[in-house]
Amino acid sequence: MSESLNVGMIGYAFMGAAHSHAWRTAPRFFDLPLAPRMTALAGRDPERVAAAATKLGWDSSETDWRRLIERDDVDLIDICVPGNLHAEIAIAALEAGKHVLCEKPLANSVEEAEQMTAAAEAAKAKGVYAMCGFSYRRTPALSLAKQLVESGALGPIRHVRAQYLQDWLTDENAPLTWRLDKSLSGSGSLGDIGAHIIDAAQWVAGSSITGVSAIMETFVKERPVGGDFVGLGGVGGSDGPKGPVTVDDAALFTARFDDGAVGVFEATRFALGRKNAMRLEINGAKASLAFDFEDMNSLWFYDSADGPNSGFRKIQATEPEHPYTGNWWPVGHGLGYEHAFTHQVVDLVGAIANGEQPTPSFADALRVQRVLAAVEASAGDESRWTTV
Amino acid sequence: MSESLNVGMIGYAFMGAAHSHAWRTAPRFFDLPLAPRMTALAGRDPERVAAAATKLGWDSSETDWRRLIERDDVDLIDICVPGNLHAEIAIAALEAGKHVLCEKPLANSVEEAEQMTAAAEAAKAKGVYAMCGFSYRRTPALSLAKQLVESGALGPIRHVRAQYLQDWLTDENAPLTWRLDKSLSGSGSLGDIGAHIIDAAQWVAGSSITGVSAIMETFVKERPVGGDFVGLGGVGGSDGPKGPVTVDDAALFTARFDDGAVGVFEATRFALGRKNAMRLEINGAKASLAFDFEDMNSLWFYDSADGPNSGFRKIQATEPEHPYTGNWWPVGHGLGYEHAFTHQVVDLVGAIANGEQPTPSFADALRVQRVLAAVEASAGDESRWTTV
Amino acid sequence: MSESLNVGMIGYAFMGAAHSHAWRTAPRFFDLPLAPRMTALAGRDPERVAAAATKLGWDSSETDWRRLIERDDVDLIDICVPGNLHAEIAIAALEAGKHVLCEKPLANSVEEAEQMTAAAEAAKAKGVYAMCGFSYRRTPALSLAKQLVESGALGPIRHVRAQYLQDWLTDENAPLTWRLDKSLSGSGSLGDIGAHIIDAAQWVAGSSITGVSAIMETFVKERPVGGDFVGLGGVGGSDGPKGPVTVDDAALFTARFDDGAVGVFEATRFALGRKNAMRLEINGAKASLAFDFEDMNSLWFYDSADGPNSGFRKIQATEPEHPYTGNWWPVGHGLGYEHAFTHQVVDLVGAIANGEQPTPSFADALRVQRVLAAVEASAGDESRWTTV
Amino acid sequence: MSESLNVGMIGYAFMGAAHSHAWRTAPRFFDLPLAPRMTALAGRDPERVAAAATKLGWDSSETDWRRLIERDDVDLIDICVPGNLHAEIAIAALEAGKHVLCEKPLANSVEEAEQMTAAAEAAKAKGVYAMCGFSYRRTPALSLAKQLVESGALGPIRHVRAQYLQDWLTDENAPLTWRLDKSLSGSGSLGDIGAHIIDAAQWVAGSSITGVSAIMETFVKERPVGGDFVGLGGVGGSDGPKGPVTVDDAALFTARFDDGAVGVFEATRFALGRKNAMRLEINGAKASLAFDFEDMNSLWFYDSADGPNSGFRKIQATEPEHPYTGNWWPVGHGLGYEHAFTHQVVDLVGAIANGEQPTPSFADALRVQRVLAAVEASAGDESRWTTV
User: Fold this and answer.
1) C-alpha distance from B350 to closest chain A C-alpha (Å)
2) Mutate which of D171, D268, D272, D378 to test chain A, going by most A C-beta atoms within 10 A?
3) Where is the GFO/IDH/MocA-like oxidoreductase domain (chains A, B, C, D) (predicted)?
4) Residue A283: pLDDT above 90?
């Protein structure tokens, strides 16, 4: 029987549900070197957090995250709350000797992210690890993309083309949720979904963004307050009071990478008809690849070595040889959104057991944060080229 | 707190893993009127079944399915073993007053399926229910297809076009597993995957197949024995002893439905490059729809009412309004293969709690079995038209 | 300056326009060994045929096809009239020493097709050639498919899957045109579009259909008469008199090939939403290919030699190395429907200049005709297996 | 019989072949109010231009474009030569009272374009018209896109997403052709293909770009000289002498439109695997549309009015009701690249006959030129925001 890894999680909304599923499911499909135990869930409202704990499978609940960190029977803190709380919680947890899994974006500012990274470095020296939850890295098709680039299959990279297109704010009466409040979320489409494609692009391409030129836009300046939150979009109304949207609806930027590639990035929640089009295309001198989360089990791969009969191959990334998929179903039996969270748990637990740094580290996430900051700076300065 | 529903499952291979995940997961995302408890898992080998029980989350294990049925703390028997055992187990369980969930195809012969249906009818009179596991019905996009047909959107149906294309037997050295042994599996591609498209076609179209004309083919007559089973395909070898393949590699048939529609069906494991292409297209006089499991979160819908600007719409069947999906993730965050099993549990538990017949009933599955038999009869009689 | 090849064409509807374009265009993009001259166009109505000749680019017109054949300044007769006239015209032309290009299907019966083939054989001995217009063979992507099969890339073929899906008869008030009158057209969807996929399947696969089992259906038994003909569908009306539809609306059949492959074929004009889905998929033991005319510039090719990263490649069949395309535009600048007719002219003129038999010969077309007859026979005899 | 419109064309490479085809073909499929006559072709080499005239269907040839303009029997000058010659020829022709069709981009500088526009305005006052050859406007699917936006179907536009991706320069040994010489072509990917998406975006969206922020890149600085030109790419060699590439390989920019929309544009010849991916997506508040030239007969249209069952519709833009397509083939029988040129001739001839300004006018093309200049200026000034 493996030793257990006792987990305490903070927050139980969308991300909390996804993380809970991952903790429950990982040991059922993968052989883990440590047995995760879902020890405690923390939230502010005692009744709601207790109900959530029962529903999601946690053994107990806490109403103060500080108390969770103090518990001796908790080894790892899983942070699923808005970005404004990340730094305080993560640093406290690391200082208390708890491993940390923190949702992305790492923080609401570069400064916070730097402090978190420093705390993570200090903790690492004591065998305590921190990881940031850029879960899309663990989507099998994107992991396969990373492997192909690493293998040298693409040759020198010329172009990176990344989009994260959603449409849930197109309706002008969609309500003002925390995601539209800069003090809580840090930014809008940029940090929420732009961060994902920045991380994915740098990780898959194996290079770093060195500078950006950006524009940002808020199409709808005011939205109804007080609507119940349902899914991402919530339910608002056109007649009630409105409050200001303080974040961006869309962020667009061009970029250069340290290997000479150029890139285009676009994050928006106003691309009507695109529901979760997290897309990445990379063109190399020898081969290209393309991914779209709306068809998440496929990776498109073009290999010029195929000669005149080259063409983008639709690889179903569900073969036993592909990352993670051998532990699930036969080929062609697709996985879903939440599987990436399960794989995140698998890799995190494996790294902790092996005494290795899980990835993305806080330092990796800080690199994303610096790009986010450069985008905001450029957008605020006539799109001037801004180095990262 | 809801009353519990104590489940005993038999078999723990591919289907056992999928069903276990469903029992574990359903109460985490859906509000169930009864709380499923994973009471016991049955298998022949004591060590392997005990290990599987631990891995998959069952409280205990049994080495004789009869013993499982005898247990007072078991309310429902979930049958995940090859088809040759379905009839005996299901009938015994129903007679013992246990609800039954039985994998498809219902049986290896119409005779067995009739006996099972009779047992289910008798049990139903006592408030005990039986359901057959045609899980694809609970894939949201296919459920949405069913809703669209039921709403009258398609008008009179002209064509049904169904394919289930896999390729895992293309390699002549793929090993001789139980799925290729008629005494265990009943048939090959016909019962394994053909059954799924027959059920899906009749269910979505809302009509019944009245006759068929068929051909069946076994391309590779002998295969290596003794290979370890891995995934669906297993690992064989070209040098060892070989044994006869006693089932069909492919089954193709034309069909007529009781509403005047005509159909074409094809099931094969030799469609190289098609991994799990479970496809259904229905053309009505007013609208059409098309589905392919390789892109399982989409339903294509063509509505002639859109006029000259009609075109097949790629509906992402992940909206809150769509079947099942509101309980999962935001729109565009796709589900995977196993979610259909979770939905199957949700609907089964709901039906039992409400004292309603869950669907597909054994009688529904018997209708599929009769089509399978007609296909085999026609293929054995010069493709002559054979009524169902 | 090349010698000229003087062409006389009969008929100037849909096919006449396509053929005229081909005769006009072929010498502009290809170097032809003979210079086609558009000498005369024949039709029944003097005014309409004269106007058509001017519009389509013919030097003169005739009102009797017999007169066209008698003209010394005509070397080749291009037959673009309904099938009931093919045999008489083609045989007369061949006997008069004129080369013949005859639209498909070759004839309205096997008997006629045999007579035509005999006339073609006799003419060939005198250096006079006959060709049947299965134009889809000259769509570059399908020609590339043929090359791939011939190269051995696919290995032994297991499955042929062919569909020709249109929807222009879905409307019950579409008018009764000549295509729905068996005495003129010979059959409905079977001969009109089914013939295309039968020819394409046998040609690309490089094998012959040996037997079939079929069903045919006429969904709408009566249609309005007297509507003006517009496009394929015409304009009818719901209130006027109606006449009987004497041909099939849909033809579906299974087939076996002489190399052991099995096939499924479906031709219909009731597949709502499918406009011109002429599709062919072939699964071999080593590779597969798939084509859909609705995306006519692409060929999908799956090569198992690509290993775990295999996937259907979308080859844009517009490379200089691909059949015909080097004479047109740069890669990715797609061709259209009519280009196949231009390529047909190129190959026909080349064969005549070289004293070689152009393909498909009448004998090739007779093989298709025999399949059509077998399909009708099987459909009329309880779908019984019918050898070709 | 219609009056004739006598055409003289200059240049006979790729564009010359496309324009010749259009002049030959337009009157065969469309009823034109003036009958185009292909009077003369001009080029520098007497033998080659004479041979080209014969091949392409021109009645005579000239070796000096000035002589062509002087001819009384020429009514319209069609300019198919590199951009450095556009201004001089077009202005001379207009001043001589000849209508002008000029290939895009209009000129190699804003200054030239302004002079040309002034000349066009002056000529227009005398009933002489000038048009710029942004042919993609006449691709039926893009024309349909324009109609949909004009109808108000999209509502306020939020996003424009335009790409023109090719890959024919990925090979470092592709030769140094005139397209890579700034003195002849003006710019690289920016003017050649970027101009197309700028024009298409502004035209379809019905709004103007007000400012841009850009980066441009030349990945391969030197290329082999003296290679034979084949297709777009030519045939070079790795051993011979090399010369400098003086244009951009890729141009990327963000943009704002005068209606509040934001845009992303990318033009490159290094997107390996993308052959002619001229793409445009527009997201409105009510509907969205998307186009990709690699599937040129389709327009994707998302209408939020379709409710929860909304999805991008794949409209086959080949219906009789769609722009231009009723004059060609039945629905689903796709058109090719060159058809847009034929449609351009149809519209140009119609406008001249009606005494109306054909579009795009030189003034429209000047608007594109100003955007090109702003992109270059921004790219040369740290990507700073540059107003148009």
Assistant:
1) 18
2) D272
3) 145-289
4) yes
Residue with more model confidence, B108 or B235: B108
Tell whether B185 is covered by a domain.
yes
Q: Could you give the percent of chain C with pLDDT greater than 70?
A: 96
Report the pLDDT value the prediction gives residue A240, as an integer from 0 to 100: 78
Query: A58: helix, coil or strand?
Result: coil
Amino acid at C388: V
Residues B148 and B268 both lie in one domain: yes
A82 touches A44 (CB < 8 A): no
Is A274 in Cβ contact with D283 (below 8 Å)? yes
Give a yes or no: residue B264 inside a domain. Answer: yes
Q: Phi first, then psi: give them for residue D65, nearest 5 degrees.
A: -65, -25
Which helix (H) or strand (E) segment holds residue B272: the answer is: none
Report the residue of chain D nearest A302, measured CA to CA. D273
Determine contact: B146 vs chain D, CB below 8 A: no
Residues of C in contact with A148 (CB under 8 A): 309
Segment 296-325 of chain C within 8 Å of chain D by CB: 296-297, 316, 318, 320
For residue C300, the chain A residue with the least C-alpha distance is: A311
Task: Report CB contact under 8 Å: C331, D275.
Answer: yes
Q: What is the pLDDT of residue B190?
A: 97
Token duo for residue B307: 């006029």
Q: Partners for C (CB, 8 Å, 3+ pairs)?
A: A, B, D
Give the tokens for residue D375.
Answer: 């992109």
Shared-domain flag, residues D64 and D191: no
Please give the residue of chain B at the shortest CA–CA distance from A277.
Answer: B332
CA distances to B373, D177, D187 from D183, rounded to whole Å, are 76, 12, 8
Confirm if A127 and A95 have CB atoms less than 8 A apart. no
Question: Which residues does D352 contact at the CB level (< 8 Å), separation at least 6?
Answer: D5, D34, D76, D99, D129, D358
What CATH number does residue C152 fall under? 3.30.360.10
**CB–CB of C144 and A309 under 8 A?**
yes
C62-65 contacts, C-beta under 8 A, 24 or more apart: C62/C8, C65/C10, C65/C89
B288 and C310 in contact by Cβ < 8 A?
no
Per the CB < 8 Å rule, is C333 touching D335?
Answer: no
pLDDT over 70 (residue C236): no
**β-pair partners for D39:** none
Q: What is the predicted pLDDT for the residue at B172?
A: 92
Residue with tokens 């990274």, as numbered in its chain: A117
Instruction: Write out pLDDT tens, residues A6-65.
Output: 999 999 999 999 999 999 999 999 999 999 999 999 999 999 999 999 999 999 999 999
pTM: 0.96
Q: Which strands, in side-by-side order, build the sheet including A76-79? A: A60-62, A35-42, A4-10, A76-79, A99-103, A130-133
Residue among D28, D293, D297 minimizing CB distance to C21:
D28
Domain identity same for C157 and C31: no
Residues B70-116 have pLDDT tens digits of 999 999 999 999 999 999 999 999 999 999 999 999 999 999 999 99
Other Cβ atoms within 10 Å of B238 Cβ, number: 9
Counting the structural domains of chain B, the total is 2
The answer, for A2 touching chain B at a CB cutoff of 8 Å, is no
Percent of chain A with pLDDT over 90: 93
Contact (CB, 8 A) for C323 and C144: yes
Choosing from B101, B136, B171, the residue where a domain stops is B136
- Distance to chain A for C201, nearest Cα, Å: 21
State the smallest CA–CA distance between residue B60 and chain D in angstroms: 44
Contact at CB, D312 and B314, closer than 8 angstroms? yes
Cβ–Cβ contact B329 with A under 8 A: yes
Q: What is the ipTM of this complex?
A: 0.95
Q: How far is B140 from chain C (nearest CA, A)?
A: 22
pLDDT at residue D229 tops 90: no
- In a shared domain, residues A262 and A234: yes
Residue B380, classed as helix, strand or coil, is coil
